C-alpha cells in the first residue's frame, strides 16, 4: 500500500521512530500509516543498519563518515549550526553524537567556535533562569493544545494549531489554519487521533474556540467527553498553565516563523511538514536531559473510534435529553444545560453532601440543581 504522505522520508522517519519505541504495536501503526507489514519491516530493517540515509531511496543514499581532525570537526559543527541557527552548543553536541560523530569538543568549546565564526549573538549568550518543571509520568496522559497567535500572509492570515504531549514534548499536531474555528480544530484533531491514538486528557484555553470564557462547555468539550477523553482548561489569564505548549510556540517562532515571506497557509504548512520531524526526532530538548521528544514518546494504545460510543449511565441514574434550545425538564421545571449539549442525554443524581441534584454527562458533573431555591449552578470545569 502507498505511504499517505507528502514527503516519504519524513513519514518513514516518524514511523520507524514510533515503531522502535517500547511496547510499540507495529501492526497497529501499519494501519494508522496505511502501509503493509512487509513495507514496515523493510524500513525497520534498513533503519537498524544505522546508515545515515537508511530511509532514503538506495539510489540516492549519501555515504559519509564523521571526520576526526579538529578543523573538519569544526566544519561539521558550523554546518549544523547554519542549518539550525537557534540551537545552542549542547543541542549541537548531542545531535552530532546521535549522528555518530566522535571526538567532539566540550559544549564550552563549541560555544567558542560559534563565537569565533560569528554564529552567536550576545542575546543568545544570556543564560535563562532555571525553573522547576512538572510533567505527566507517561506519554498520552495529557496533550496540551492551543493556537499560536495568528500572523499575516500575503494571502490571508495563518493560525498555527499546535498540540504537544505533556510527558515527552512530542509534537502530535502542527497545522497551518486559515481560521481558528471549532470544526477546523476537530478535523485536525481527528487526524492526530488516527495517527497517534487517543490521549487520556487534553488541556486547552478558555476562550474561543475552546470555550465561551464564561465557564460554559464547548461542542469540542462534549465531543471529547464522548470519546472518553477528559477535558481541562487552563486558569484564565494564566498562560503558564500550558507552559509546555507556550514553550513550543516560542521554539516554533524562533526556528520557523521568523523567516517570514509567507504566501499562504499551504506555503506555511510545507515548512511545518519539514520542521516537525526535526523537532521530534533530531532536536535535543534540554528539559528531557538532551534527549529528543521521540525518544520518550510512544503512541497511545487507544484507537480513535470512527463512530462515537453511545452515551450510557448506571442503573438508577435518571436521564433527560437536552432539547434544541439547550434545556431539559426536571420535576416540572426547565433547566438550562447549554447549547453544547443540544441533542445529548444527561443524567441526574443526588448530591452526596447537600440537598441538591447533580447533572452529569457521562462521568463529568456539569451542573448542580438547587430544587428548593430553583437555581442552576455551574460546576467549575477541571483546571
Q: In a few lines, what is going on in this structure?
A:
The protein is an alpha+beta fold. It is built from 12 helices and 13 strands. β2 and β3 (157-165) form a beta hairpin.
Describe this structure in words.
With 383 residues, this protein is α+β, with helices and mostly antiparallel strands. The chain folds into four domains: 53 residues; 56 residues; 154 residues, 2-Layer Sandwich (Nucleotidyltransferase, domain 5), CATH 3.30.420.10; 61 residues, no CATH class. Helices cover 33% and strands 17% of the residues. It has twelve helices and 13 strands. Strands 1, 2, 3, 4, 5 and 6 form a six-stranded mixed beta sheet that branches. The longest helix has 17 residues. The chain is elongated. 30% of the residues are buried. About 3% of the residues have low confidence.
Note the main attributes of this structure.
6-stranded mixed sheet, 5-stranded antiparallel sheet, Nucleotidyltransferase, domain 5, 383 residues, single chain, 12 helices, alpha+beta
List the helices and strands and how they pair.
Elements: H1 8-19, H2 26-33, H3 37-48, H4 70-83, H5 89-98, H6 107-116, H7 122-125, E1 143-147, E2 151-152, E3 157-165, E4 171-177, H8 182-196, E5 201-204, H9 219-226, E6 230-233, H10 243-255, H11 265-281, H12 293-296, E7 318-321, E8 327-330, E9 333-336, E10 345-350, E11 357-361, E12 364-370, E13 375-378
Parallel strand pairs: 1-5, 5-6
Antiparallel strand pairs: 1-3, 2-3, 3-4, 7-10, 8-9, 10-11, 11-12, 12-13
